[in-house]
Specification:
The chain is α+β, with helices and mostly antiparallel strands and 156 residues long. It has a single domain, classed as Glutaredoxin. 29% of the residues lie in helices and 12% in strands. The strands form 2 sheets. It has a two-stranded parallel ribbon.
């Protein structure tokens, strides 16, 4: 499910963030050697770092549990829980004998800075509980993006 969210993050035009001096960073829990392939697969062009020991996740108190319930509708998740698990399993089979991060690790979203100011924070409650990307862009003072599944965007 994380991959589908990152695919939508990749749709944010560079100038949308650059014009507002906003930097987008994704921190994953897989080893660094998977970054290049993951960025190619998702089209993600911004900064990406790895925390395979999940020290940042633990420090931020992010959940780590197999909770794939869909209590929330997420516009950035295109597959259901079963097909999401199957897709993740298929990707894992492309790199046999290597783990690409803990699938039960929940993420978080923050808007930080300048300095130590926290403008927004959200800890994911389940695998589909990511914040809508346009809501984050609005919080950061950026223009929104036309996502295919975003109900707030009117097509006339």
């Amino acid at each position: 499910m994380c991959k589908e969210y990152v695919e939508d993050l990749a749709k944010i035009p560079l100038n949308t963030l650059k014009d507002k001096n906003v930097k987008l960073v994704v921190i994953g829990c897989a080893p660094w050697k998977f970054i290049k392939h993951f960025k190619q697969e998702t089209g993600y062009q911004y900064d990406m770092y790895c925390d395979p020991d999940r020290n940042i996740y633990k420090c931020l108190k992010c959940k780590c549990e197999a909770n794939h319930t869909r209590k929330v509708v997420n516009k950035h998740i295109k597959s259901n829980a079963l097909s999401g698990i199957l897709k993740s399993t298929w990707r894992a089979m492309q790199f046999p004998n290597e783990w690409q991060g803990d699938p039960s690790q929940m993420g978080a979203t923050f808007i930080l800075g300048p300095g130590s100011t926290v403008h927004f924070s959200h800890l994911d409650g389940n695998s589909a509980d990511q914040v809508a990307i346009n809501d984050l862009l609005i919080e950061a003072g950026c223009d929104t993006v036309d996502f295919e599944k975003d109900q707030r965007v009117l097509h006339v």
